[in-house]
Amino acid sequence: MSTFTLDARLAQDSLHIADLPLCQVRLSRDARYPWAILIPRCADTVEIYDLSTDDQATLWREASRLGEAMMQHFEGDKLNIASLGNLVAQFHLHVIVRFAGDAAWPGPVWGQGEAERYTEKGLSERRDEIAALVAALQL
Q: pLDDT by residue (tens digit) across 42-100?
């Protein structure tokens, strides 16, 4: 039986925040948006249907609750929850708070402009903000 291993690109492009019952929560290193990534800690998961029915429900509950908390905290205009997986095969779900007039609005964030790196202080602050939201989730 295989064990969960995080894809190298996900590890490089994001920072670990916390673990929920199913998913590892990571912060995207793109500072343009409040952007979390949920990765189910299940081996060999490429598509959502690779998860059990119960894990699919848990994933959606975790994404919904985290997304709602992020929207309230960051006072966003729209919540984007998406799974693409074209560059990284390991199943992961993006939870992104969007703002009218942001760098990609109203289009998707993918393929729009260049990612902006956080300052060290900014990365730490955003990580702490989302960690606090995760800690307060009722799951």
A: 999 999 999 999 999 999 999 999 999 999 999 999 999 999 988 999 999 999 999 99
**Which strand (E) or helix (H) includes residue 25?**
strand 23-28
CATH 3.40.190.10 is held by the domain 8-136: no
Name residue, tokens 């095969």.
89
pTM confidence score:
0.95
Residues 6+ apart with CB under 8 A from 45: 51, 90, 91
Question: What is residue 130's predicted lDDT score, i.e. its pLDDT?
Answer: 98
C-alpha of 82 from chain center = 9
Task: Give the DSSP letter string of 85-124.
Answer: -SS--S--EEEEEE-TTSTTTTS-STTSS---BPPHHHHH
Domain ranges for the chain, please list them: 8-136
pLDDT tens figures, 7-55: 999 999 999 999 999 999 999 999 999 999 999 999 999 999 999 999 9
Amino acid 99 reads: F
- Which pLDDT belongs to residue 15? 98
Distances (CA, A) of 48 to 21, 62, 72: 17, 14, 27
